[in-house]
Amino acid sequence: MNASTAARAPSLFVSHGAPTLAIEPGIIGPKLSALGESLHDVRAWVIVSPHWMTRGLQVMAAEQPATVHDFGGYPAELYTLQYPAPGSAALAQRVLALLQAAGLPATANPQHGRDHGAWVPMRYLRPQADQPALQVSLPHDATPASAYTLGRALEPLRDEGVAVLGSGSLTHNLAEWRGGAAPAAYATAFAQWAETVLTSGDEAALLDYRRRAPHAERAHPTDEHLLPLMMAAGAAGAQFTDASQRAVQRIDGGIQDGVLSMDAYRFG
């Protein structure tokens, strides 16, 4: 499939929550499944997750990436789960070329497997595991602006039938995690602010979220789980920033364990 025959694939952001999302779908699981079923023209996936952070950019180049169980202390069932989707050397080379053209040097990594930030949501989005799904790493020194730039570099993939997926968490303060607790007011306020900013195409506010969003430092003591949202917004291009083309859909995932907003967003 090429750009002349493929429908424009979406840019997506999902909140992957705890690894237990793989066996406890909650509110968001069925909605991600329905979203995946609607993506008839997607042929492959490129994913950015905060659970693969590197010095500089790397691109997964394994032909058959392993399923990495990069967590400890969870139910034994989780460690038996696999997501055996193929990789794609050709797609990896295409991603490397796009990054190079954007002035973002990157290297191929033929050994790295898919972390849970990638395979857990993909088990809902594409349970058949029959399409290439590769990751681009998140640099250790990434910022909201650089993550957005990364997304802009990946945007052309969408015209080639490749979905761009940022997997993180709309709010992420694990120090305040309370199993089964009611939603914290600050997490709700941050999620509502994010919806306003994303549906209005306010790029400046999004990239300056630590100063402009309510309770930003409490919702995100560190940036890494929100940076995939900036990447996804960057890959949205005009479908985020241009009022005449804007196509942004919030998928309500609720707030889990008091502090983890599980919202997802579809651009395009």
Label this structure with key terms.
268 residues; alpha/beta; Protocatechuate 4,5-dioxygenase, Chain B; six-stranded mixed beta sheet; 10 helices; Xdiol_dOase_suB; oxidoreductase
SSE layout:
Blueprint lengths: L10 E5 L12 H11 L5 E5 L4 E2 L2 E4 L28 H13 L4 E4 L6 H10 L7 E3 L2 E2 L4 H11 L7 E7 L16 H16 L2 H5 L1 H4 L3 H4 L7 H10 L1 H4 L6 E4 L3 E2 L3 E2 L2 E4 L1
Parallel strand pairs: 1-8, 2-6, 2-8, 3-7, 4-5
Antiparallel strand pairs: 1-12, 9-12, 10-11
Structure description:
- It is an enzyme of class 1 (oxidoreductase).
- With 268 residues, the protein is an alpha/beta fold.
- The chain has one domain: Protocatechuate 4,5-dioxygenase, Chain B.
- The protein is built from 10 helices and 12 strands.
- α4 (144-154) packs parallel to α9 (227-236).
- The protein is globular, with a radius of gyration of 17 Å.
- 49% of the residues are buried.
Order of helices and strands: EHEEEHEHEEHEHHHHHHEEEE
Q: What is CATH's topology name?
A: Protocatechuate 4,5-dioxygenase, Chain B
Q: Say how many strands there are.
A: 12
* Overall shape: globular
**Structural class by sheet pairing and helices:** alpha/beta
Short description:
The protein is α/β, with parallel strands linked by helices and 268 residues long.
